[in-house]
């Protein structure tokens, strides 16, 4: 995945507001979808070419289902904006980025300097993910 700017916003104009997964499947003019916990992101796979924005809701920092939704869509080739919304915390940002999120709209404001520091905190990773960073073992053993 190419390097991207980390955006903390919810003000980007899209053609249509984000709709639920079920509504998106039924609407031919929608370009933004919101995935709620329990929604099956795989329902969107045949429609990836229509989507400009995917919002993934994290109603609680303890609910990790949104990570899986993001990874499913990125691994299937979705290249548009993937926005984490809701109870998004500083400590989660690096993990969210590794799963494919490139913008964030937390319900409580985050300090951008703290967020950038969180992204840079661990230069090495242990497993492969959608962000394309090489795991430490691959660097060591080629």
TrEMBL record:
Pfam families: DUF934. It comes from Croceibacterium xixiisoli. InterPro entries: UCP030820. This is DUF934 domain-containing protein.
């Amino acid at each position: 995945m190419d390097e991207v700017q980390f955006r903390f916003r919810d003000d980007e104009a899209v053609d249509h507001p984000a709709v639920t997964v079920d509504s998106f499947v039924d609407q031919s003019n929608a370009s933004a979808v919101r995935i709620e916990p329990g929604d099956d992101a795989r329902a969107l796979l045949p429609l990836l070419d229509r989507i400009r924005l995917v919002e993934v809701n994290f109603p609680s920092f303890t609910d990790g289902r949104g990570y899986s939704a993001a990874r499913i869509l990125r691994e299937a080739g979705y290249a548009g904006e993937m926005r984490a919304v809701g109870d998004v915390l500083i400590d989660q940002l690096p993990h969210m980025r590794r799963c494919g999120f490139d913008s964030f709209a937390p319900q409580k404001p985050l300090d951008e300097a703290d967020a950038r520091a969180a992204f840079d905190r661990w230069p090495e990773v242990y497993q492969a993910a959608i962000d394309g960073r090489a795991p430490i073992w691959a660097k060591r053993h080629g």
